[in-house]
Amino acid sequence: MESPHEMKTVSEILEKLRLEKKDAEFRMTDEGFKAIQSNQVFKPDELHISKTYRFEGNSDPSDNAVIYIIEANNGLIGYALDAYGVYSNYEDDSFDKFIAQIQHITHT
Predict the structure, then answer these.
(1) What is the model's pLDDT at position 89?
(2) This protein's superkingdom (predicted)?
């Protein structure tokens, strides 16, 4: 069971993922989501989003970010990180469209 301590920063979440060995970083490419460490590329139907963390900067809109916890059908678990709003990491809506195609699941 997790402690009642609420994680408030991106770095805290990324450290938690590292400790749990769920720290494969996924990045959007022209071919799909690429797992950076393994160079594997995944299509939306090969992935599931199991959790989303949203961060909103109180005083600085550049602090707005979202972390998607992603599980691949081959067992790889990691994350995709994106700033959102005017500070998005992507110039077009390809990331948003790709994320929208991934099935969201909830673990019980």
Answers:
(1) 62
(2) Bacteria
